[in-house]
Amino acid sequence: MPTILSPQPPVFSTAKSLAPRLTTLAGARVSLLDNSKANAGPLLAKVLDGLVEHHGAKRGITERKSSSGIPATQGMLDRLRAASDFVLTASADCGSCTSGCVQDTVALEVLGVPTVLLGTDAFHPLAKQLAEWLNLPTIQAAITPHPLGGITESELDRKAVELTEVVAKLAVSAQD
Amino acid sequence: MSLTDTSERANLQPDLLEVEDLESNTLVELFASKGWGDGLPLVAPTVERVETMLAAVDTDPDELLGTIPPRHGALTPRTVAVNAVLAGCAPTVMPVLVEVARALGSGVVDLAAINPTTHPVAPLVIVHGEAVERLGFNAGAGSFGPGCRANATVGRTVRLLMIHAGGAVPGDGDRSTQGQPSKYTFCVAENTAASPWGGYPASVGVDAPSAVTVAGLENPTNIHDMESDRPERILDKIASNITSLGSNHACLSGAEIFIALGPEHAATIAGQKWRRDDVQGYLFQRARLPARTIRAAFDNRREPHWTRGLGDDELVPMTDHPDKFRIFVTGGPGKHSQVLPSFGARPTSVTRPLYLPDDK
């Protein structure tokens, strides 16, 4: 049979591993990485409120990216590492913002900070694919039905309540 | 923080695949089953054809030129050659493709965002200088359109590299909500002979007989002005296009906005003694919207530090510096130009010098 050369080159990415999960959220400093997407900041704040109120977490710092499509700066990552036991980042609800969120999540895990990404079901497959290409397929994501932008305050409240409990579990025990 | 490590050289040789035959239809079906290809007929990348392509450049075929995010497939001249054969390239354009690949693999073009974004955006290749005529690129009438093998196949090779190395398969690693036609092919040549201000590369500090520019951009949109003899009237129409509230640079500040001036518009503008930087400065001043209008349109826009202090009635420029209006001339007779809106928040274009074999 004739042969051709494959057009698809090998992936060039080094293996990585998740940071250890928390033993408990009680007393843990939880920081936020907001990518500026619509409702990302409010959702993160509501979930943090839930973690503080119901699980005894402490408030860490908040970093906000100037654009959702780009990864966090090294300065942001360094400040989050110094001030946090656990980081929440949002929102992965479009293509480039999911790419930015996944890059940030992987970077924080590599720095030793357990992190959970908040995203929507429409872009969860992309998040998983991107994490696999970055060689850390086990990043932890708390997922809510799409969309996040353009929804009512009460819908956002309901999502936040549901996500808070998912995040609380993922903070102490990584899921496959 | 870099999440990929290209310091160790892995085995970068592409796999050999057995195929029933080398017919285009066979390849199209095989590629479709693997999520490869662009849906159009393909030329079989046999070892012989790839070697012929590689013979046109004086580089190590397995040199790592970079990776294409988000998949981070390794980019080598051999990978480029395989995809160039698939796209139907003549070997003579390989030096162009290798420099384009270096630009794509540099990390500057922001392919980690451009490939998976929901926004319709694709890397445009602009070919400059002596390479245009020597390699048969079209810088004249219809330069963004069909009919020229060099333009068509160089642009198509870039798309195939996005798909095969970058994982930019629609609905997978390419999540564009609607896509855009320029995701099939997107390559144009600068009409330097018709440019009153010389070639574009010198305006960004590149001095070489030929060059390539790569930038993540939307489809070009038309600027029609059949009658004006004053630069201001032409440029005001361009400015009105740039201030569309639906464009990415309305909500993401700091973008590069490319303007492809038709030769007649360029001549009219230069005829009044306007230089390239006069055009950039005028567009910077005129492509503005009242802060109130932008604030009313976006609930969640992250205002850049340089506009936060503006009152609602003050005018906000659509990017943060006149230099970010990138001006070049292309096309033939007629009074049309085009604006190419950018992806967004930060400059991502790369211009690299290009040396053809006979230059050395």
Element layout with pairings:
The complex is a heterodimer of chains A (176) and B (360).
Chain A: E1 3-5, E2 29-34, H1 40-55, E3 58-64, H2 74-83, E4 86-92, H3 95-110, E5 115-120, H4 124-133, E6 140-144, H5 153-172
Parallel strand pairs in A: 2-3, 2-4, 4-5, 5-6
Chain B: E1 16-18, H1 24-34, H2 47-54, E2 66-68, E3 73-75, H3 77-87, H4 94-104, H5 111-114, E4 122-129, H6 130-135, H7 149-164, E5 187-189, H8 200-203, E6 210-217, E7 221-224, H9 231-242, H10 248-251, E8 257-261, H11 263-271, H12 276-286, E9 288-290, H13 291-297, E10 315-317, E11 325-329, E12 336-340, E13 350-354
Parallel strand pairs in B: 4-5, 8-11
Antiparallel strand pairs in B: 2-3, 4-6, 6-13, 7-12, 8-12, 9-10
What does this structure look like?
The complex is a heterodimer of chains A (176) and B (360). Chain A has 176 residues and is an alpha/beta fold. Chain A is 41% helix and 19% strand. Chain A contains five helices and six strands, in the order E-E-H-E-H-E-H-E-H-E-H. In chain A, helix 1 (40-55) packs across helix 5 and helix 3 packs across helix 4. The longest helix of chain A is centred in the C-terminal third of the chain and has 20 residues, at 153-172. The N and C termini of chain A lie far apart (42 Å). The mean pLDDT of chain A is 96. Chain B is of the alpha+beta class and 360 residues long. Chain B has helices at residues 24-34, 47-54, 77-87, 94-104, 111-114, 130-135, 149-164, 200-203, 231-242, 248-251, 263-271, 276-286, 291-297; strands at residues 16-18, 66-68, 73-75, 122-129, 187-189, 210-217, 221-224, 257-261, 288-290, 315-317, 325-329, 336-340, 350-354. In chain B, the strands form four sheets. A four-stranded mixed beta sheet of chain B has the order 5-4-6-13. In chain B, strands 7-12-8-11 form a four-stranded mixed beta sheet. Chain B starts with 15 loop residues before the first strand and ends in a 6-residue tail after the last strand. In chain B, 51% of the residues are buried. At the A-B interface, strand 1, helix 3 and helix 4 of A face strand 1, strand 3, helix 3 and helix 5 of B. Strand 1 (3-5) of chain A pairs antiparallel with strand 1 of chain B.
